[in-house]
Specification:
The complex is a heterotrimer of chains A (368), B (349) and C (99).
Chain A: H1 10-23, E1 28-32, H2 35-43, H3 46-49, E2 54-58, H4 63-66, H5 69-79, E3 84-88, H6 102-107, E4 111-114, H7 118-127, E5 132-139, H8 144-156, E6 162-168, H9 171-180, E7 188-192, H10 193-199, H11 202-211, E8 215-218, H12 222-238, E9 243-245, H13 257-266, E10 267-274, E11 278-287, H14 296-299, H15 315-319, H16 351-358, H17 362-365
Parallel strand pairs in A: 1-2, 1-7, 3-4, 3-5, 5-6, 7-8, 8-9
Antiparallel strand pairs in A: 10-11
Chain B: H1 28-41, H2 45-48, E1 63-70, E2 76-77, E3 80-81, H3 82-95, E4 99-111, H4 116-133, E5 136-145, E6 153-163, E7 179-182, H5 188-197, E8 202-204, H6 214-219, E9 227-231, H7 237-249, E10 251-256, H8 264-273, E11 287-290, H9 292-303, E12 312-320, E13 324-328, E14 334-336
Parallel strand pairs in B: 4-5, 10-13
Antiparallel strand pairs in B: 1-6, 2-3, 4-6, 7-11, 7-12, 9-11, 10-12, 13-14
Helix pairs in contact in B: 3-4
Chain C: E1 5-13, E2 21-26, E3 29-34, E4 46-50, E5 53-57, H1 60-71
Antiparallel strand pairs in C: 1-2, 1-4, 2-3, 4-5
The chains are: A alpha/beta (368), B alpha+beta (349), C mainly beta (99).
Chain lengths: 368, 349, 99
């Protein structure tokens, strides 16, 4: 696949690793923010291959992981309503709410459907005018344009039986929360390449300057990640703290204007509670008044939620990069993908699940 | 022959174009269904006799029996249907035990409301598949369940075969050093069916790999010394077979990711949906554990057969005592491959 | 963040009512994709697709330049792409030797 395979070239990766080894002269801690980057790091084994001095810490870049339990509970309430077709991305289906997940709701008779695109949900609504179709709008700034376009599409097609359960979150406030923590160990960031494709990277220049941390906007393939890590390490070794754009084939400084416009048309920024991180000011998106009629929470008049997070789950510390999944006492024992205590164990991008699937055993984790 | 319809039957609708509960009640409608839909396609003396069981001639050598159920949506997909799938799947279960397939029984559970024309088409596909494999459908049963109690059609088969002389394929014979050979590109069936459902909007030129493997096995593995164990990956893909072996034999396996053959459209579809091809279903492939000395000749032999053109050695058994599957990435690092847990869900985040 | 896969725009679809869209090919797999965020994309261009929408048009010049730079013999510590800040001299104390 063009523009994909080239960035998986083992020879290029090997040369970047060599250069990285030559460049690292002392221990550094780098956080990659995006779950997709975590997935690649672990799947291709990059974390084992980078020089021993480098500590890769996985950040809260998995929207599935940070969706609060109460939002899942609201999804379950809506899905259980008669006549509702509840549409969602695949990996939301196994995330635990207070009483089960969407997959289990489907087993009990709810019409829960996996879609690849929120636009498909609008199409379903168009084809089933007698049913209420709800799309579970989860995701960071990368996905918000798609759900915003779905709202626009519903208007253009005059589809009134469509609504959105909105749980979008924004990356920079989460990064700031990590940087503000008194015990923060993270010295550099790999910023999420597809989020920045939409937003551009101005917001990250501010963070880099204020907290004096290098930030490299990075792609998702092994060569991208190694290059991003190399540039971050070069800055760290040199005492620099700027924003660099490794993913220039997709990311422009100003981002994607059309995407930003449709998001601004449909959504406005609001405070948002993150699973494991608590309430972060101005860190989420909600529908503007002009689109409030598409808000599923209003349409279904849900009662106030009373969710309780599982006390044993340490996803908050994992998402902040304070601990690695194997450090959690419940990891692999009381918490596994089959019976997860929290979302990072369920989502394919969640740090806990990624560890579980790829790097569980010491025997395999040693440099081979 | 009684003319009286028992009052328990719904009003018989002569010439009904949909399956009714009455079709499963053993009465006139059922006999008509058997006569008009099943027998024309599945013509076999035993079936014609309509006994509840079939008397078979003695099987020379060791008889092998296998049973399986088939559920697929959509019923018809590029490369096959539930009918052909049922025959090939049963034949393959027997073939990977080292048996030549001989007879099949088929039990049908049909949902009330299914168009008769659809049932007819499935029966014809099944019959054609049986003729292709030279196996006889010797006995069958039909039940009709109320609307909603089944997803259109469920099939359950039992296959009977005869063990080829000299074959001793057993998972306990898998040893450290054995090579893992796959007969062709993986994941075709799972992706073809997923695309055929239409719910994800993907269009691709790909057919299911659904195919009978008994002739491939007969021409290659059956005569090769050094074959220790053979399986056909179905649901759960190659990963499921690998885990089955690690559990049963308590061995560690290592797979070379770059060596696993995957067709381009399968690869692309998996990239788009965030799926790992190792977990995607196949229906016409085999995975064989063979001695290291025999591996290259077995691969060459498979490659000389139309169903094994892209056969490849994809890994080896690296240890005993730790039941795990490891995958070596193209960059050279190892990761643990987990057991499949439920259907792979397309991921987007 | 998230699964964004590069594909080639084959053709734009004329829509009477609704968002602009087109057919994108991903090495043999085709899907209808919303093009509202990439009005400049033309058939033949590559776009990154996430959740059914094209989020960017791949800059082929930029991609070629970076690839050429990575592939050039001994290039990793020498010449840098134009829009990157120059690292100070002490980042690479000695010239990269091709192994």
């Amino acid at each position: 696949m063009r523009y994909l395979d080239e960035y998986r070239d083992p020879r290029l990766a090997a040369r970047l690793l060599d250069e990285l080894r030559r460049t690292v002269s002392r221990p550094w801690t780098i956080m990659e923010v995006c779950g997709g980057q975590t997935h690649t790091l672990l799947r291709s084994g990059l974390e084992q291959l980078v020089p021993r001095g480098l500590s890769m810490v996985h950040g809260p870049g998995c929207p599935v992981c940070v969706t609060p339990q109460e939002t899942i509970d609201r999804a379950l309430l809506i899905a259980a309503q008669p006549g509702v077709i509840f549409c969602s991305f695949g990996d939301m289906l196994r995330v635990p709410g207070s009483e089960g997940n969407l997959l289990e709701a489907r087993a009990r008779g709810a019409d829960v459907r996996i879609v690849y695109s929120p636009l498909d949900a609008v199409q379903i609504a168009r084809q089933h005018r007698d049913r209420q179709v709800v799309f579970f709008a989860v995701g960071f700034e990368t996905t918000a344009p798609a759900t915003a376009l779905a709202a626009r599409q519903a208007r253009l097609w005059q589809v009134t039986n469509f609504s959105l359960l909105v749980a979008h979150v924004l990356v920079p406030p989460a990064m700031e929360a990590i940087l503000q923590a008194p015990d923060n160990q993270v010295q550099a960031f790999l910023a999420p390449g597809h989020v920045c494709t939409i937003t551009g990277f101005e917001a990250y220049c501010d963070l880099a300057a204020r907290y004096r941390v290098p930030i490299v906007v990075t792609g998702f393939e092994p060569v991208d990640l190694l290059e991003g890590i190399l540039w971050a390490v070069r800055q760290l070794e040199a005492g620099r703290y700027r924003v660099e754009n490794q993913y220039a084939r997709s990311v422009r400084r100003q981002g994607n204007r059309e995407a930003q416009q449709v998001v601004a048309e449909v959504y406005e920024v609001c405070d948002r509670t993150w699973r494991g991180l608590g309430m972060l000011a101005q860190s989420g998106l909600k529908l503007r008044d002009a689109y409030a009629d598409l808000d599923a929470e209003r349409r279904f008049a849900l009662p106030p939620s009373r969710s309780k997070e599982n006390a044993e789950c340490r996803s908050g510390d994992v998402l902040r990069g304070r601990i690695r999944p194997p450090d959690c006492p419940a990891f692999g024992t009381r918490c596994t993908p089959e019976h997860p205590l929290g979302a990072p164990m369920v989502s394919s991008e969640g740090a806990c699940a990624a560890y579980w699937h790829y790097a569980r055993r010491q025997a395999v984790g040693s440099r081979s | 022959m009684s003319q009286f319809s028992p009052p328990a039957c719904p009003v018989p609708h002569e010439g009904a174009d949909r399956i009714l509960l009455a079709h499963g009640e053993g009465g006139r409608l059922m006999r008509r269904l058997i006569r008009d839909v099943f027998l024309p396609a599945l013509d076999h003396p035993q079936l014609r006799a309509r006994a509840d069981g079939a008397c078979l001639p003695p099987v020379e050598g060791t008889p092998v029996v296998s049973t399986d159920s088939f559920v697929v949506s959509p019923l018809f997909f590029p490369g096959g249907s539930i009918g052909s799938l049922a025959v090939y799947g049963t034949v393959n279960d027997l073939a990977v035990c080292g048996a030549e397939p001989l007879y099949i029984s088929v039990a049908w559970i049909v949902e009330e409301g299914l168009p008769v024309a659809v049932l007819s088409r499935i029966v014809e596909d099944l019959a054609r598949a049986a003729r292709t494999c030279a196996v006889s459908v010797v006995t069958a049963d039909t039940k009709v369940v109320p609307n909603g109690a089944a997803d259109q059609v469920f099939l359950t088969t039992t296959g009977i075969g005869r063990l080829r002389p000299g074959i001793q394929w057993d998972v306990q014979r898998v040893c450290v050093g054995d090579r893992i050979v796959v007969s062709g590109p993986i994941g075709d069936h799972g992706i073809a069916v997923l695309a055929a459902r239409g719910t994800l909007g993907l269009e691709l030129d790909l057919a299911s790999d659904s195919a009978p493997l008994h002739e491939l096995i007969g021409a290659t593995l059956a005569h090769s010394p050094g074959v220790h164990f053979v399986r056909d990956p179905t649901r759960g893909g190659v990963a499921a077979v690998l885990h089955e072996v690690t559990e049963a034999a308590q061995v560690t396996l290592e797979i070379e990711e770059a060596a696993v053959p995957v067709r381009d459209p399968v690869r692309s579809a998996c990239e788009i949906l965030g799926l790992d091809p190792l977990y995607v279903a196949c229906e016409g492939r085999l995975v064989a554990f063979v001695s290291p000395e025999s591996a290259s000749s077995i691969v060459r032999l498979l490659q000389s057969h139309p169903l094994g053109l892209r056969a490849a050695s994809i890994g080896q058994v690296t240890g005993r005592g730790l039941a795990e599957v490891h995958v070596r990435s193209p960059l050279g690092a190892l990761r643990v491959l987990d057991e499949p847990a439920g259907a792979p869900l397309p991921r987007i985040c | 963040m998230c699964l964004g896969i590069p594909g080639q725009l084959l053709e734009r679809i004329e829509e009477e009512v609704g968002l602009p869209s087109g057919w994108v090919d991903f090495a043999g797999v085709r899907r209808r994709v919303c093009l509202a965020c990439v009005p400049e994309a033309q058939p033949g261009d590559y776009v990154i697709v996430h959740a059914g929408i094209a989020i960017s048009r791949i800059d082929p010049v930029e991609a070629e330049r970076v690839m050429a730079y990575l592939h050039r013999t001994g290039a990793l510590a020498e010449e840098l792409p134009a829009d990157r800040p120059e690292p100070p001299a002490k980042t690479s104390p000695e010239p990269l030797r091709e192994t």
